[in-house]
Amino acid sequence: MKLRSSFQARVATVLILLSLVVIGALYFSVKVATRSAVRGQAMTQLEVGSRVFERLLDARSRRLADAVQLLATDFGFRDAVASGDSATMRSVLLNHGKRINASDMILLGMDGKVLSSTLSEVPEGSTFRYDQALREAKQAPGHAHRAAARPAAPSGGSVGAGTAADCAGGDGLQHGRHVCR
Asked: Please, which residues have CB within 8 angstroms of residue 20's CB and are 6 or more apart in sequence?
């Protein structure tokens, strides 16, 4: 009987080991297949989300550029710029910025100096930190700008507006399109 139970024990051991190998192989194959499927779905969703986000930013950029163009042609604004009165220019920038939902409004001279600003950290007479980047972005064909600038008066200067949501962070010009603080 000892031989028979020993043979049965060997067969049982082999079957158990074989079952463990099959279960292990099945586990790892399912794990690999699941990981691959999840990564594929995640990449697809990320690409779709990215395209939607870019379209939203482009639409917002177009609205911002249109609003700045409207401000640049507004007689009251041009009159305020021509007067050179800082308080009047700032008031016009604040009012128009609220109407177009812009968080930042800056009036620049042709030399890149700030004539008026709604930002306390951008004082009058200072050189605009991103003047060169803005000039380069305006000249880049086919790029939507998250900040918009237009000529403000026949005597020179330009008005610009931007929104805080347009910049995810960082400094300077990113991808030729974002002007960030």
From this structure: none
DSSP 8-state code for residue 118: S
Give 172 or 130, the one with higher predicted confidence: 130
The residue written with tokens 């049982």 in the block is 12
Place of tokens 């004082």: 123
Question: What is the β-pairing status of strands 114-117 and 104-108?
Answer: antiparallel
Nearest-angstrom CA–CA distance, 117 and 145: 19
Spacing of C-alpha 36 from chain mean position: 29
Displacement of CA 164 from its chain's centroid (Å) = 10
pLDDT tens, residue by residue, 75-84: 888 888 888 8
Token pair belonging to 10: 């060997």
8 A C-beta contact, residue 165 and residue 53: no
Beta-bridge mates of residue 104: 162
Alpha-carbon gap, residue 91 to 71, rounded angstroms:
13
- The beta-carbon contacts of 109-112 under 8 Å, at least 24 apart in sequence, are 109/156, 109/157, 110/156, 110/157, 110/158
